Amino acid sequence: KQEVTQIPAALSVPEGENLVLNCSFTDSAIYNLQWFRQDPGKGLTSLLLIQSSQREQTSGRLNASLDKSSGRSTLYIAASQPGDSATYLCAGRNSGNTPLVFGKGTRLSVIA
Amino acid sequence: GAVVSQHPSRVICKSGTSVKIECRSLDFQATTMFWYRQFPKQSLMLMATSNEGSKATYEQGVEKDKFLINHASLTLSTLTVTSAHPEDSSFYICSGRDTHTDTQYFGPGTRLTVL
Hints:
- Chain A contains no helices and eleven strands.
- By secondary structure, chain A is mainly β.
- In chain B, strands 2, 4, 5, 6, 9, 10 and 11 form a seven-stranded mixed sheet that branches.
- Chain B is globular.
């Protein structure tokens, strides 16, 4: 069964910094991995989806990578802004039929 | 992307009552829907997987008689919290799996508060 871990649990950075959020998973036979953003009291916003055959995906200031052999994914945020403050969740699944398994998230605070 | 709706978005109920939460896939058919629960400052924990027309599969530790799931059509799944207690207060999020794209789309969540 897939298990997902995120480090750090919380991160505070000054505005403008580039930052990396880390995600690790136990089963390298991962089908795909997804990064989400969650604002307090709100639902999930999907940021990036990486299929097992891909190594990275980019959207604007966000770049997510996937390294199946090491069981790791990173979310890189360039030129961080206060509006990026949220909890970022990493989730992976082992097949198209199985549900996403979530990490505990990283709470990001970008200080103006 | 595809859209999943949930209703209600917030509900407050008295202890001992039952609450039904609806989850609809608005522009795709979801043969499989997943129900997650999220406690404050915690991650999403899978409660159960429901397949259209069949019984739901519950995760370990989730009481099937307390959390009744019905998936009667390809676009609708319901979760009923029976005899709710304060410890059931949580954020419930459903997710529909688009069969054609193998992508999970999430609803906006339902915040349940049991007094």
